[in-house]
Description:
Layout: H1 2-42, H2 46-71, H3 73-79, H4 95-104, H5 110-122, H6 126-129
Helix pairs in contact: 1-2, 4-5
Amino acid sequence: MKKVIKIITSLLLNILLVVIAVYLLKYLLLPAIVVTLIISFFNRKVGNGFMNISQYLREVAISIDQLGNVICSDLFDLTLIKKSGYRFGNPDETISGVLGKNQKLNKLSFVGKCLNGLLSLIEKDHSIKAIEEDEN
């Protein structure tokens, strides 16, 4: 009985943490980005300010991509890869990186190949380039 209570308590705590995180993201993301952009631009020379802003926006995009990889992992596993493919869901990986791994393994589904092709129009071999050496 103690084990069940501990599991339920942990579940409820994690649900609460997700709800808080979603609300923080919803209401603070845009103001946080604006403040960071202003500080990055005005605290440095103009050229360096643009470089810092560009790097910051890239880091934000990668973070959102990693979040999407976790949140949508089951959906992506069902739609973008074959059953024996490398699975989505690792919080340290981007969606593109997982697509790249599955491309190398020849495990992309038809929809996965379409998405991969679209990304390749934006940047040639995008998903292959997105694979990080320190990822599993």
